[in-house]
Amino acid sequence: MNSAKVRDFITKYTMIIVLVLVTLFFTWGTQGKILFPQNITNLISQNAYVFVLATGMLLCILTGGNIDLSVGSVVCFVGAVGGVLMENMGVPVFVAVILMLLLGALIGAWQAFWIAFFRIPPFITTLSGMLVFRGLSNVVLGGKTLPIKSETFTVLFGGGANCYVPDFLGGGEGLNRVAMAAGIIACLIYIFVTVRGHMNRKKKGYETGNVAAMYIKMIIICAVIMFLTVKLAQHKGIPTSLVWVLIVVLIYGYITSKTTIGRYFYAVGGNEKATKLSGINTDMVYFIAYTNMGFLSALAGMLTIARLTSAQPTYGQNYEMDAIGSCFIGGASAYGGIGTVPGVIVGALLMGIINQGMSIMGTDQNMQKVVKGLVLLAAVIFDVVSKKKSS
């Protein structure tokens, strides 16, 4: 492998390499505690909202480096309304869930309307939303904490002691068989999709790349999947919050890579004027991006109040920073038009591992903020420098 290929490899997989190095560092720093089964489960459950919000934030960033500052407040407000509906008004759980998702989408559409059709800067519009919905959260809850007692809701969205997919295969006290089966199936699906894609490209005469590299990549990814699967199976199995994260990641990964509307997001971020001249309704692209952000904020709100088994006016603080940071660390461009859902997940995992690793090591909370800030700055500097070199 020549130096040019090495550089291309490092550039393409920079954040994955960093993720591996950071994981190894904290494995050493915590004497392996960060890889305990319960800590792996906690990493997923505690950061489920980040994965969901970052996926939605990616679509906003793709449109030209735009962001949504209101997501933390929307998470809090939707959670507050949902808590009042279920606990104070006796609304059935599934009806409350639908109403919460609709509320999130309506909030997103409200902000999207001003951004898309009146071209109010997203920063100003969503800053306003951050203040408005934080205030409304306090009004709805009266400044108090509201316990969420519905076991159905907490189990469904990843809260309480029973928030795991039942082991209907009868694993007993040993490895959770449902988790193991899910890991094996995931590996088989990944291998099938990868090999089939390679064969289709070869049949059509497209460049297929290095076959050996493809198989090495396949082996590494399957090994990681099975490692995580075994860790989950050793604890209590698959958290229900992970199921929601996988659904969001798979759906939006497909949308951004395989659909027409997905290509529109990249086109608007790459060159909005040219995109508009080609006949694409760029206003609608903005509208969809921010409406979707509200919808996913509602889902993140449900995951939050389920995990914490309560609704509180302070929930959601700094959630927007976690989502934005995950996107930029995961390779999304500050200028828009560049970024992928898998990259965002890598960024969110990196942030989560840094948080958890420093917590286990007993690092001061203020120093944790310093480290996260420096990591975010380094990611954006890397993006800007790389873009200048390529141009």
UniProtKB/TrEMBL annotation:
| GO cellular component, as recorded | plasma membrane
What this protein is reported to do is described as: Part of the binding-protein-dependent transport system for D-xylose. Probably responsible for the translocation of the substrate across the membrane.
Q: Where would one find coiled-coil regions in this protein?
A: none
Which keywords does the record carry? Cell inner membrane, Cell membrane, Membrane, Sugar transport, Transmembrane, Transmembrane helix, Transport
What Pfam families is this protein classified in? Answer: BPD_transp_2
Q: Cite the GO molecular-function annotations of the record.
A: transmembrane transporter activity
Places the protein is found: Cell membrane
Among PANTHER family, the record links this protein to: ABC TRANSPORTER PERMEASE PROTEIN YPHD-RELATED-RELATED, XYLOSE TRANSPORT SYSTEM PERMEASE PROTEIN XYLH
Q: What are the transmembrane regions?
A: 48-81, 93-117, 123-141, 178-199, 211-230, 242-266, 286-306, 327-354
Kindly provide the name given to this protein in its UniProt entry.
Xylose transport system permease protein XylH
Its placement in the membrane is given as: Multi-pass membrane protein
- InterPro entries given in the database record: ABC_transp_permease
- Just give the chief location class: membrane
